[in-house]
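Provenance and format

Records in this collection were gathered into a single text stream. Each protein contributes a sequence line and a token line. The two records reproduced below are adjacent in the stream.
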Amino acid sequence: TVLFNYPFSIGDLRDSATVLFNYLEQQQPAKVPWDDLRYIFGEIMYGGHIVDARDRLLCNSYLEFFMQDELLDESEMFPFCEGKGVSFRSPLPAGYEKYVEHLESIPGETPLAYGLHPNAEIGFRTQQCQDLFGMLMQLQPRGGTGGE
């Protein structure tokens, strides 16, 4: 299996936000054109970086799930992730303080939020430790004489 690292950056996110703003401002649609926006982001903005067909399918699946009218429904919280003891929902429309309160109430990241087994974090943390200690070992002085 070949793993691809894609060069997504904060610039991609900023540019996508600008495109979204300009598109909605110029078109002034009565209804959000989700199909157009999914194409712009999934095939052009981010999709232009994606070279693997399965990665493109995954990206488009995420866009299909998240980019829908229910995301903007002000009467209920949109479920970004639910199940197995985890629930990440969007906040209802409110003032700044309520948004901050909502964000602070969200539990820390968990593999369950990404549909992974809880043990997935163990492997990740183990690799982090190995990388850290490997780097520390490389920084150790090698032989030679100390000072006088």
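Adjacent record:
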Amino acid sequence: MKNITDSFVSMGHWPSVGSFEFNTDILATNPINLSVVLGVLIFFGKGVLNDLLDKRKQRILSTIRNSEELRRGAVEQLEKARARLRKVEVEADEYRTNGYSEIEQEKVNLINATYDSLKRLENFKNETLFFEQQRAINQVRQQIFQQALQRALGTLNNCLNSELHFRTISANIGILGSVEERTD
């Protein structure tokens, strides 16, 4: 410590004006050199440092502004996306509801169409049965008529002479012809 204070004290007493000496005491010269270097750096570097800091500040502020704009844009896009999502959800619900309604309507239509088809098939079946019954009845009538006719002819053949027999056959043929015309 004494060396440092001695160097400051000795600065006040300069030996002679014409002589120049180097102070070799490192402890005494370092604080002086550092203060001179710092003073020069502060004096000359202050403008450069201010410019660097101002540029950095402007870059940070512009980055913050850009980030804010991007955030606002992202928020707007998010709101638009949410609105579209709500709209799509509403449309999906409508489609789902309408789809279920349409499915139910198609189901009812299919049931009605099936019922109508079954009704038509039932009517066709009944008509077919009625037609077949009528045909069977007509066949049975014809067979009964033919058998009755054959019995009558057999009885007449046994009882009648040939002229009467011939007239009866002609009349019966005429009757049969008219019966056949009615059945056709």
